[in-house]
């Protein structure tokens, strides 16, 4: 047994013990009902303190497992890159995608825009430019008001927090308009002990072709020639807002896209994901049961994250015992956004009252056909004769969920 497997076994044992505590405490978190912590822990306050210590141990174990998994993946990717280095030198990747498959942002949107041919040639149609001198001397007696200079600060509109879901999803790339892969839909294992001369058990495997289509996420902003020519901060504006708009929409699609073209199919909408209802359970009991569904049955995976709306995580984080002791650590402690050792991703893109538990690291992938691209043109409608420009940003990607049963929604929380 390697170290990673041993840590996972230890995590499972400690998870089971903590789950037993919540099961005995019931939905009202009555610590007087808990007996599984042993004779040395008798009072409600001692039991709550023990639960906090157990949760901190799980958090530390979870972080150690995450680090080992990351190290193993880095080692595997390094080995793969070394073996494919020569082949990769002849491969032309899609625009905006690095060799690692990540979205490339070596240049900002603004830099890409001001370096584009459309922007550099924007003044070619001008016949002439005339500088006019003013000979009359302006003085304070001419009645000019004092000049007020802006600070340079731009306060953006309140929007959903920076995208987080894309950070827990692996990124790949493709040069086609769809991602086609084979799924093992039948696995019949008739391996068994056989006597000498007896027939072997016959196994059966069936593979089915699956397809995830590339979709486009796009946005455009109309502006004038004067705005582009006279405002030096257009570069930072484009960088901070157009990219954010695309990423914000992508984060939403990865969770709740309905799959009807041109939408991506978000994990919550995928046919075959498992469901665990809250029912009479506490929120943490229901989430742990969802983790068990992911690990067993048709899931056979290891949960890598739990995605929750901030309002739902607040309910769990603020839980107290019947005598007012916080279960997940004192309010004076920063605490970790983890439950049973698994990271909790808070996102308002997730449907409220529904948590999503799953193996995001292994059984879904953001496959990029074309990274975020910014273009400018005056050919939109009658923009040319009005001195306007249309600036557009877009990306194309697919989002296959390779094993739906590796994910489980927890409803009614």
Give an overview of the whole structure.
The protein is of the alpha/beta class. The protein has a domain at 98-123 and 158-190 and 202-309 and 347-413: Major capsid protein gp5 (Major capsid protein gp5 fold, 2-Layer Sandwich). Helices cover 33% and strands 20% of the residues. The chain has ten helices and twelve strands. The protein has helices at residues 3-25, 44-88, 109-114, 117-120, 225-230, 234-256, 283-295, 310-317, 360-363, 383-386, and strands spanning 171-173, 178-188, 204-213, 215-224, 274-277, 305-308, 338-339, 342-346, 354-358, 366-377, 388-398, 407-411. The protein has a six-stranded mixed β-sheet with strand order 5-12-9-6-8-7. Strands 1-10-11-4 form a four-stranded mixed β-sheet. Helix 1 runs antiparallel to helix 2. The protein is globular and about 90 Å long.
């Amino acid at each position: 047994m390697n170290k990673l497997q041993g840590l996972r076994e230890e995590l499972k044992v400690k998870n089971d013990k903590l789950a037993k505590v919540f099961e005995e405490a019931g939905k009202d978190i009555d610590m007087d009902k808990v007996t599984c912590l042993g004779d040395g822990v008798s009072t409600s306050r001692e039991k709550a303190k023990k639960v906090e210590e157990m949760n901190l141990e799980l958090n530390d174990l979870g972080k150690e497992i995450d680090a080992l998994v990351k190290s193993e993946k880095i080692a595997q990717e390094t080995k793969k890159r070394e073996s494919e280095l020569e082949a990769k030198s002849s491969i032309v990747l899609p625009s905006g995608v690095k060799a690692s498959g990540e979205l490339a942002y070596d240049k900002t949107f603004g830099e890409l825009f001001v370096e584009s041919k459309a922007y550099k040639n924007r003044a070619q149609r001008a016949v002439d430019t005339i500088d006019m001198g003013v000979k009359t001397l302006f003085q304070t007696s001419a009645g000019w008001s004092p000049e007020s200079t802006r600070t340079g600060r731009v306060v953006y509109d309140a929007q959903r927090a920076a995208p987080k879901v894309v950070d827990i999803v692996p990124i790949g790339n493709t040069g086609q308009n769809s991602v086609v892969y084979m799924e093992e839909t039948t696995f019949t294992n008739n391996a068994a002990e056989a006597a000498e001369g007896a027939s072997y058990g016959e196994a059966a495997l069936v593979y089915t072709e699956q397809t995830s289509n590339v979709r486009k996420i796009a946005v455009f902003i109309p502006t004038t020639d004067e705005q582009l020519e006279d405002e030096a901060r257009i570069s930072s504006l484009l960088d901070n807002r157009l990219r954010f708009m695309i990423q914000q929409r992508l984060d939403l699609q990865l969770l709740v896209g309905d799959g009807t073209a041109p939408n991506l199919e978000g994990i919550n909408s995928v046919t075959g994901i498992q469901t665990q209802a809250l029912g009479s359970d506490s929120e943490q009991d229901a989430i742990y049961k969802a983790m068990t569904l992911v690990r067993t049955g048709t899931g056979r995976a290891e949960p890598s994250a739990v995605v929750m709306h901030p309002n739902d995580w607040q309910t769990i984080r603020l839980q107290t015992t019947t005598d007012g002791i916080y279960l997940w650590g004192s309010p004076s402690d920063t605490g970790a956004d983890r439950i049973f050792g698994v990271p909790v991703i808070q996102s308002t893109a997730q449907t409220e009252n529904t948590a999503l538990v799953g193996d995001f690291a292994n059984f879904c992938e953001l496959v990029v056909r074309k990274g975020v691209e910014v273009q400018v043109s005056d050919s939109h409608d009658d923009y040319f004769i009005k001195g306007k420009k249309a600036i557009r940003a877009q990306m194309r990607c697919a989002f296959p969920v390779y094993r739906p049963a590796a994910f489980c929604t927890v409803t009614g929380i």
